[in-house]
Amino acid sequence: MRKFKLFLLLLLLLASCATVPKMEKPIKKYKDFDKPFEEVWRSTIEGLTRSGELISFTEKESGLIVVEKELSGDEVPKFTMGPALVVWHRASVRGSIFVKPTSESSTRVFVNVKIKGLGTPLFGSYPMEFALTSNGRIEKEYLELIEGMVLASRKFKALQKRHAEAQKKSPEERNILGIKVKALTDDVAAVLGLDRSAGVLVVAVIKGSPAETVDIQKGDVILELEGEKVTSPAVFKELVRKNVDKEMLVLKIMRRGEVLTIGLPLH
Predict the structure, then answer these.
(1) Nearest by Cα to 220 from 246, 192, 187, 243
(2) Distance CA 50, CA 144 (A)
(3) Within a domain: residue 19?
(4) pLDDT over 70 (residue 231)
């Protein structure tokens, strides 16, 4: 029986040596951002926290963030081939993320991952702990997560700036859609075959506004905004305010008895 096991092990070794390893393009383990250190540091912490990563250590002075997690399910390899055929039971990841300023307005983020696995060699009796080499996939996931959070932070700041600028403008200048509306009168509603509270009447479209670019016209009746019924000018303004951060608003309008759906871009 012992000779048979040795013979089988020799066959596995020969098979692993005979297989030509597929050369994979190395994955870059850092990312440069054209943002100052403070913003990237804050976005990195927020992104890791929101994604459920366990942050075990932070040191802002050195720019170090340490995250740790246990791999489970399909994330743990079932076994690995090679000189030591191992059946894996569990694995854990320790990621060291370094946020380093490269200038006053730019920052580089490095990610270094170490993986430990607990497994039993096929021809052994007891589980052993092994250090596994990262193929760069986990580092890439962390960098993509951080990049997404930095971009989201940038967009949020742009929205804050636009909102602050809007508050300085007069009520007429704040009309971001470029539409002036009023309530339907009984006579107009009767002609259109609508209830008075079925929509609002467009009485003017500001030249050069988003509304003009999608051909919203004076005399149109706005029935819905983002799937919600527009029952009065006050409701219309509130729905615009609630959805102002979207890239596009979807309006349902009535024009000369025909119901149309129009996408109105805001940015």
Answers:
(1) 192
(2) 14
(3) no
(4) yes
